[in-house]
Amino acid sequence: MSSGAERRRHAVLTAPLWMPSADWSSRSIAERLGVSQSSVSRTWRDGGADDGGAVELRDRLSLRPLALAGALVSARGSWLLLAPASLPAHRPPAPLGERSRRRLRVLRAADAARADLDLRAAADAATERFRGLVERLGAGSESALVIASGPRLLPAGDVDRELVIAGWGRLPELLAGLDEAGCADALADLESRARRWYRTREGAFLWTRQAPPPAEAGAAPIGSAVARSAAERRLADAIVHALRSGMIDGTFTRGDALSERALADRLHCSRARVRAALVMLADEGLVTASSAQSMVVRLPTTSDVVETYAARRALGAIALRATSTWSAGSRAAVHSALADLRERVTQGDVDRAQDLDLRFQRVLAEASGLTRIPAMLEVLSQQVTMFIAVLGVDYAFPAARILEQDTAMVDALERRDTERAIALWRLKMDEGLDYMIGQLDSVRGSRSAPAPAPRSHGGS
Length: 460
Known about the structure:
8% strand
């Protein structure tokens, strides 16, 4: 971006995706960015003129209830699908509540974030699956509606079934009249999966209210399209928050074993619901859980952190050795990821630099051409992210050093000095581990009372 003001505006627009907690507010975003709360509100209100697309959307929503059915964000543009909503005869539609209206901002945020991400991965497969969803949900009738942020997706003959609302600036306001009961869970699921997509950089983002259609044989996977129960996702997020708060207030300590019963008591919900949410977190590699008659979560310890970094150190070395024969396309992708990181470091954007370093690591691993190592490294990176979230660590590794490390690795690969690149990767992991241990010691030292010995919370 050409100016600090433009960068701040972009950061505000994408904040629903990158803020540490989904429970953000204009105030928390303003504090995070060092700007006024009024400037955040002004940026969100700046939606452009009340064009024909906005007027027609209001008219369509007044004729028949519609509900969120799908969304696609790719390098070419962003599209939202609204399908006819079925409402009980005895209940008129009720407008979205405050929380649901706030969640709508993730749509604009995702569209704005297209400039930050390489969305080419799985783009064609995602587009075709979204078009298939449009066809199945009745885009041939006048009731279903596609809303485009830029270029149209449907054929020219379907112009009446697709509206263009440039930039989606006013979309949260225009969709506020959707039915709360019919859209609340869908919006919670959309927000959760969009935030995960932004963290993991999975390429094109496809969200559907129901499980997406099966991919064609050989099609690239679209991880962000995995359908999960919105209720399970909300409870999973609540579990992470409960673990973190328990660590901070001293209720839990590192190495504690928490049964699903203890978590259910703390969150005031059933053990069955907690178990389903724990399965989700375990599948994503975000908690360590043992499964017998019931699930038990073991809170991470310093040893877990050391072990995770050691695994990343070893697997990254394997990937780098294979990268010595990278293709022209893989080489270009690595240089592109490094250029994006350099831009953010130059701008002093520490938070985004941390994210882009993880993206650089993923792209570098994928350049190896190996099929399993990159995915294993990604899981380990997610586990480090979970350690940071649960253990209360304020992770802010110096951005300039990150750029220095990554640039040196790429330079070594360009010189075909694979051993030097591997040595630099190992040094990067060692420095990251040292920093993480220092932060953990700082968290421990900030508590007035010594930490109790690891213990078990609740029975099976």
